[in-house]
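cron nightly-structures :: item 1 of 1
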Amino acid sequence: MKSVSISQPVWDAIASRGKFGETEDDVLRRVFNISPRAASEPAPPAPSRTARQSKGRRRSFATDKLSSYISGNELRVSFASGASQAWKLPPKSDKAALRVVRDLATSFAAKHGATVGQVNAVRKTLTDEGYHLIK
Protein backbone atom coordinates (compact mmCIF):
# COMPACT_ATOMS: atom_id res chain seq x y z
CA MET A 1 0.00 0.00 0.00
CA LYS A 2 1.09 3.52 -0.77
CA SER A 3 0.08 6.71 1.00
CA VAL A 4 -0.30 10.07 -0.69
CA SER A 5 -1.02 13.58 0.47
CA ILE A 6 -3.64 15.43 -1.52
CA SER A 7 -5.06 18.92 -1.42
CA GLN A 8 -8.58 19.66 -0.21
CA PRO A 9 -9.92 20.37 -3.74
CA VAL A 10 -8.66 16.96 -4.95
CA TRP A 11 -10.18 15.26 -1.90
CA ASP A 12 -13.49 17.03 -2.56
CA ALA A 13 -13.42 15.87 -6.18
CA ILE A 14 -12.92 12.25 -5.10
CA ALA A 15 -15.69 12.58 -2.50
CA SER A 16 -18.11 14.09 -5.03
CA ARG A 17 -17.65 11.11 -7.36
CA GLY A 18 -18.12 8.55 -4.60
CA LYS A 19 -21.21 6.39 -4.31
CA PHE A 20 -22.80 5.22 -1.07
CA GLY A 21 -20.53 2.75 0.72
CA GLU A 22 -17.51 3.21 -1.56
CA THR A 23 -13.99 3.76 -0.28
CA GLU A 24 -11.61 6.24 -1.85
CA ASP A 25 -9.82 3.30 -3.49
CA ASP A 26 -13.12 2.16 -5.06
CA VAL A 27 -13.78 5.65 -6.47
CA LEU A 28 -10.33 5.99 -8.01
CA ARG A 29 -10.50 2.50 -9.52
CA ARG A 30 -13.81 3.41 -11.16
CA VAL A 31 -12.61 6.83 -12.39
CA PHE A 32 -9.38 5.39 -13.85
CA ASN A 33 -11.07 2.24 -15.23
CA ILE A 34 -9.03 -0.09 -13.02
CA SER A 35 -10.64 -3.45 -12.29
CA PRO A 36 -12.23 -3.85 -8.84
CA ARG A 37 -9.98 -5.14 -6.09
CA ALA A 38 -9.56 -8.91 -6.26
CA ALA A 39 -10.43 -10.94 -3.17
CA SER A 40 -6.76 -11.95 -2.84
CA GLU A 41 -5.58 -8.32 -2.99
CA PRO A 42 -5.24 -6.71 0.44
CA ALA A 43 -7.71 -3.96 1.26
CA PRO A 44 -6.30 -0.48 1.72
CA PRO A 45 -5.70 0.29 5.38
CA ALA A 46 -8.32 2.34 7.19
CA PRO A 47 -7.12 5.89 7.71
CA SER A 48 -6.03 6.88 11.18
CA ARG A 49 -8.42 9.01 13.21
CA THR A 50 -6.27 12.11 12.68
CA ALA A 51 -6.04 11.46 8.94
CA ARG A 52 -9.82 11.21 8.71
CA GLN A 53 -10.29 14.44 10.62
CA SER A 54 -7.72 16.39 8.64
CA LYS A 55 -9.14 15.34 5.26
CA GLY A 56 -12.55 16.82 6.06
CA ARG A 57 -14.86 14.00 4.92
CA ARG A 58 -15.54 11.01 7.13
CA ARG A 59 -15.59 7.56 5.62
CA SER A 60 -18.83 5.64 5.54
CA PHE A 61 -18.88 2.03 6.67
CA ALA A 62 -22.58 1.48 6.00
CA THR A 63 -23.48 -0.75 3.08
CA ASP A 64 -27.27 -0.35 3.23
CA LYS A 65 -28.65 3.19 3.32
CA LEU A 66 -30.98 3.87 6.26
CA SER A 67 -33.69 6.53 6.30
CA SER A 68 -35.45 7.57 9.47
CA TYR A 69 -38.05 10.29 9.63
CA ILE A 70 -41.28 11.29 11.29
CA SER A 71 -44.35 11.42 9.10
CA GLY A 72 -47.69 12.33 10.58
CA ASN A 73 -47.57 10.80 14.03
CA GLU A 74 -45.24 7.91 13.16
CA LEU A 75 -41.53 7.24 13.35
CA ARG A 76 -40.51 5.46 10.15
CA VAL A 77 -37.24 3.57 9.67
CA SER A 78 -36.39 1.98 6.34
CA PHE A 79 -33.42 0.50 4.54
CA ALA A 80 -32.63 0.80 0.84
CA SER A 81 -32.69 -3.01 0.69
CA GLY A 82 -36.41 -2.97 1.53
CA ALA A 83 -36.75 -3.59 5.27
CA SER A 84 -39.07 -0.97 6.72
CA GLN A 85 -41.16 -0.42 9.83
CA ALA A 86 -43.17 2.37 11.49
CA TRP A 87 -44.20 3.05 15.08
CA LYS A 88 -46.98 5.32 16.32
CA LEU A 89 -45.51 8.09 18.45
CA PRO A 90 -46.89 8.82 21.93
CA PRO A 91 -47.33 12.37 23.24
CA LYS A 92 -43.98 14.09 23.82
CA SER A 93 -44.66 14.13 27.57
CA ASP A 94 -45.09 10.31 27.81
CA LYS A 95 -41.42 9.44 28.39
CA ALA A 96 -42.01 5.75 29.20
CA ALA A 97 -43.92 5.11 25.97
CA LEU A 98 -41.39 7.16 24.01
CA ARG A 99 -38.56 5.06 25.43
CA VAL A 100 -40.37 1.90 24.23
CA VAL A 101 -40.73 3.30 20.70
CA ARG A 102 -37.09 4.43 20.63
CA ASP A 103 -35.88 1.01 21.81
CA LEU A 104 -38.05 -0.82 19.26
CA ALA A 105 -36.80 1.39 16.42
CA THR A 106 -33.13 1.12 17.35
CA SER A 107 -33.47 -2.66 17.84
CA PHE A 108 -35.08 -2.94 14.40
CA ALA A 109 -32.23 -0.95 12.85
CA ALA A 110 -29.55 -3.01 14.62
CA LYS A 111 -31.28 -6.29 13.68
CA HIS A 112 -31.08 -5.29 10.02
CA GLY A 113 -27.34 -4.52 10.15
CA ALA A 114 -27.32 -0.79 10.89
CA THR A 115 -24.00 0.75 11.86
CA VAL A 116 -23.60 2.54 15.18
CA GLY A 117 -23.95 5.84 13.33
CA GLN A 118 -27.20 4.72 11.70
CA VAL A 119 -28.64 3.61 15.05
CA ASN A 120 -27.70 7.01 16.46
CA ALA A 121 -29.40 8.67 13.48
CA VAL A 122 -32.67 6.98 14.49
CA ARG A 123 -32.31 8.50 17.98
CA LYS A 124 -31.48 11.89 16.47
CA THR A 125 -34.62 11.79 14.34
CA LEU A 126 -36.65 11.72 17.54
CA THR A 127 -34.72 14.45 19.33
CA ASP A 128 -34.72 16.72 16.26
CA GLU A 129 -38.53 16.62 16.37
CA GLY A 130 -38.69 17.41 20.11
CA TYR A 131 -39.09 13.84 21.45
CA HIS A 132 -36.50 14.10 24.23
CA LEU A 133 -35.73 11.50 26.87
CA ILE A 134 -33.98 12.45 30.06
CA LYS A 135 -32.51 9.69 32.19
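cron nightly-structures :: done
The longest helix spans residues 95-111.
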